[in-house]
Structures are given as structure tokens and as C-alpha cells.
Amino acid sequence: MSKILVLDDSRAIADYISAILRDTGYESESLSQPTQLMSMLHSHDFDLLLLDIYMPEIDGIQLLKKIREDASFDNLDIIIVSSITDEHIVAKCLMNGANDYIKKPINDVILTTRV
Q: Do the beta carbons of residue 13 and residue 38 sit within 8 Å?
């Protein structure tokens, strides 16, 4: 079973996405503090990270770059989940190592299919 971490600065959104994934049969945890991400990734063996872009303190693109610079996460897939529709930002995420991009509001079918 795949183990998924959802990071969104809105606890409600992170929990909602995690609930959808658990209902589909995945093991999923949610996180709303971007400052805790790296320690969570180092202390658990996640297969996939769902990552928001706009967050306090550090944005998702900065976190994406930081994760991709760390060879210990070479096998971690990352899907950006954001309300941003600007194709330049979507392309920037993909160029910096995101495996996919899902737009908010979340559509359950799109989410579970892409995961």
C-alpha cells in the first residue's frame, strides 16, 4: 500500500484530501506546518507527497527544490495541489521536479486517478 503525505497550510484541506485518499485505500497523513515537512519526510517512508504552493514562511516551490536536492528522496513522487492556474507557475513546478499538478478545488476522481 502506498503511503502518502499531504501538506497544505489549511488543516481542513489537508485533512479532506487525506480522507479521500484513505477512503480509496491509501495510507495517508496530513500536515499543515511546512516547517515540519523535512523532518516528517526523514522520519517516515512516504511514496508520494501532495504539496501546496502558497504557504507561510516557505512556499511549495522552494520546498520542492529543497526536496529534489536531497538524494535520499529520489524515489519520492511529488504532486503539486494548488489553486494557481497560471501555466507559467505550473511549468515552473514541473521543471523543478514535480511529477504532476492538480488544480484546486479538488475533484475526487481527478485526485484519485492521478495518485
A: no
Q: Pairing between strand 48-51 and 27-31?
A: unpaired
Among candidate residues 89, 66, 67, the one with its CA nearest the CA of residue 76: 67
Sign of the CA dihedral with 77 first, then 83, 85, and 89 last: negative
Where b means 16+ CB within 10 Å and e means fewer, 59-98 reads bbbebbeebeeeeebeebbbbbbbebeeeebbebbeebbb
Would the pTM of this model clear 0.90, i.e. be above it?
yes
Model confidence pLDDT, tens digit, residues 61-97: 999 999 999 999 999 999 999 999 999 999 999 999 9
